[in-house]
Amino acid sequence: GTTVYMSSQEKDVIYKGDYDMSTGEFSNLHVWVGQYEKAGFTEGQRNEAKLEEPCQMDLDEEGNIYVAVRKKHRIAKITPDGMLTNYTGTGTSGTTDGPLDKAQFNHPEGVQFGPDGALYISDYWNHKIRKIEKD
Fold it and tell me: What is the CATH number of domain 41-132?
């Protein structure tokens, strides 16, 4: 089987489960990070954490998931063991570039690692594609 992750914007959670590529069936699908229908942004382990409208996600080379958290104007990082932390964004809408702890977004919707290793962010309400260079 293959591990699958799905974000639910309406329910404010990220699901984790198994996917069987030969049958096309999902199994063991469960809330992995966040609290079902409890919006907000709280760093924490699995169901201690809160998200508000998690959108698109992508994995880095170490298996960390990066997720655009639309309503909280942030990009969150989730470790393979389910620890959610703020990766970048102050939580206040804006268009400020700079260090990860000072950058501002306005309803980010998408994240994708490029072939150059940089993280590209679809900053929806700012009508921009933002780029975070690989360390």
Answer: 2.40.10.500
